[in-house]
């Protein structure tokens, strides 16, 4: 199996034209003619993931987050990202990124997040794409039964990979929850769209204090805030399955927890 064949499948699953104009997706390093047998999937292109790839003898790393999102003028080994590029090239490991093009795909990052927290049935985008209303940013769906916000928060925490951040909620703990909106990664840019979508709760990551407080005070849906890494991690298994369905490859989802936050100190009130 050649890397070019893998890229063709990935570009079909997550067309680069779907990526935001500011994004950097596709092949970061690697020879399209090189052989690929093993693919490691991870959220972040960081040292721990490269360590795992080398230990497992991977030929390709597929990540959600770009390594080189902003323009660079060099990849010298005296910088953290430059060192990663050197290690990858020296060991013939390619790196490929599917970021915002995977966010809007069907199935994509938010589909996997919705399923991970118990949303069933048909999903629809929070913000449909202009050229195809079936795909777009975020997803909205229904729980099989009505839960309280407190119960749904617990379910979401169990459905997502564990982090010290956990899952925190804003709103009345007894509020009934049935219609759920989700967005993998940083989703506060969709707050106005969520407010207009007639949902009970919105699960995303990286919510800021003032927008969240004002949103809830104004009578918007309840909010769940999880770790950024945790909301995007569920996508990896589906992407791995899609690759193995299309190609004769061995895939593995990285075991590295690459969430940036490693410690959590809480008082008794914070532990509730």
TrEMBL record:
Binding residues annotated for a divalent metal cation 1, in chain numbering: 65, 103, 228, 232
An MF annotation (GO) of this entry: metal ion binding
Domain of life of the source: Bacteria
Record keyword Thylakoid present: no
Record InterPro entries: DUF34/NIF3, DUF34/NIF3_sf
Binding site for a divalent metal cation 2: 64
GO cellular component: cytoplasm
Keywords: Metal-binding
Family (UniProt): Belongs to the GTP cyclohydrolase I type 2/NIF3 family.
PANTHER family: GTP CYCLOHYDROLASE 1 TYPE 2 HOMOLOG, NGG1 INTERACTING FACTOR 3
Subunit annotation: Homohexamer.
Protein's recorded name: GTP cyclohydrolase 1 type 2 homolog
Species: Actinomadura harenae
């Amino acid at each position: 199996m050649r890397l070019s064949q893998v890229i063709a499948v990935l570009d079909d699953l997550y067309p680069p034209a779907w990526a935001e104009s500011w994004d950097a997706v596709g092949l970061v390093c690697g020879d399209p003619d090189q052989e690929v047998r093993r693919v490691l999937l991870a959220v972040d292109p960081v040292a721990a993931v490269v360590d795992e790839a080398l230990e497992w003898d991977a030929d390709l790393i597929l990540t959600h987050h770009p390594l080189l999102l902003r323009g660079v003028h060099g990849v010298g080994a005296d910088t953290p990202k430059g060192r990663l590029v050197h290690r990858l090239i020296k060991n013939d490991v390619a790196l490929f990124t599917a970021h915002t093009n995977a966010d809007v795909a069907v199935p994509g990052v938010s589909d996997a997040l919705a399923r991970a927290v118990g949303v069933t049935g048909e999903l629809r985008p929070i913000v449909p794409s202009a050229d195809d209303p079936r795909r777009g940013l975020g997803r909205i769906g229904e729980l099989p039964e009505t839960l309280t916000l407190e119960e749904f928060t617990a379910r979401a925490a169990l459905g997502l990979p564990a982090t010290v951040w956990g899952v925190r909620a804003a709103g009345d703990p007894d509020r009934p929850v049935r219609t759920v909106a989700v967005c993998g990664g940083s989703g506060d840019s969709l707050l106005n769209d969520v407010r207009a979508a007639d949902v009970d709760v919105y699960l995303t990551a990286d919510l800021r204090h003032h927008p969240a407080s004002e949103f809830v005070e104004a009578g918007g849906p309840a909010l769940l805030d999880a770790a950024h890494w945790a909301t995007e991690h569920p996508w990896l298994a589906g992407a791995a399955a899609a690759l193995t369905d299309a190609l004769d490859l061995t895939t593995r989802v990285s075991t590295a927890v690459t969430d940036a936050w490693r410690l959590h100190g809480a008082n008794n009130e914070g532990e509730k």
